[in-house]
């Protein structure tokens, strides 16, 4: 892409970030309906950008863009679960999470831009980098297949220990502020600590996602635009998918298979270059199967849990209750002891 296209895209991306920030600034919390609407908007925008890529560079480039976008979007959804773990560990109120996510997304876009430019330069200058990326993706795939679902332990995070050792931190949140001026000095709030952890964990995620994108395209503009637009809607997507965390139990396994596939594709590319249409179909098929299997199993588990619930005893019919009540009115207790014993009888 000419330099002018890069500048235009960066301006467009900055404008989209400002729209995402300003349009929802007056609402501290996002409802599920709002999150679904915004997520649909950003996904439509991301997939629709493939039309521009196809118009400028042809159908193959458009397919590369879609494959790269879907890989990054899927990896980003998986990463949201880790962000949710951080928010839960630090007990971040819901109304403050959107600010952390916004700046986290901003940092993620800059990180991916740097990683993609450096990665493309390495691939161009040193061809064996291709095999390093491919082997790394296979290793990541193997790690994800063996994972038990716990990705990080915040209390053992070295970044957290370092931040706590070098920065004075308030003992509680100060609204949505990251730093405050107290006692004649600037002091960090726990929200800044959360933001630092979100940014550092995202760097780890970028180490996975950038090689995966290079497995389907070597074009720097396609790699960056697909990554940036996939990350752009994560703030709304976070509030949408948190309710589906239990349902997407096989997403990790599907992503592991996808990373394994693109790693193999990268390793054998000098011997046989798998066509992008096959790659795109494989990625879509694997992700669709993982989501479908998750939903089917979740529905089966819900049905099993409902079947195992003990049945409540049938309630007394209204006419029987009335009859029973009239009998009680006619009956008189002969002593206080009998009244107490009667009170201990459990009601049907």
Layout of SSEs?
Blueprint lengths: L2 H21 L8 H26 L1 H31 L4 H32 L3 H18 L11 H9 L12 E4 L2 E4 L1 H25 L5 H13 L1 H8 L9 H17 L8 H33 L9 H13 L5 H9 L4
Antiparallel strand pairs: 1-2
Helix pairs in contact: 1-8, 2-3, 2-8, 2-9, 3-7, 3-8, 3-9, 3-10, 3-11, 4-7, 4-8, 5-10, 6-7, 10-11
Q: What are the key terms here?
A:
348 residues; mainly alpha; two-stranded antiparallel ribbon; 2 strands; 73% helix; disordered C terminus
Our measurement of the CA-to-CA distance between the termini, rounded to an integer number of angstroms, reads: 77 Å
Oligomeric state as shown? single chain
User: What is the count of DSSP helices, taking H or I runs of 4+ residues?
Assistant: 13
Number of domains: 1
Provide the helix percentage: over 70%
Q: How can the largest sheet be summarized?
A: 2 strands, antiparallel
Overall 3D form: globular
State Rg: 28 Å
**How much of the residues is beta strand, in percent?**
under 5%
Catalogue the unreliable spans: 320-348
Instruction: Give me the strand/helix succession.
Output: HHHHHHEEHHHHHHH
The chain-level structural class is mainly alpha
What is the mean pLDDT? 77
Number of strands: 2
Order of neighbouring strands in the sheet with most strands? 1-2
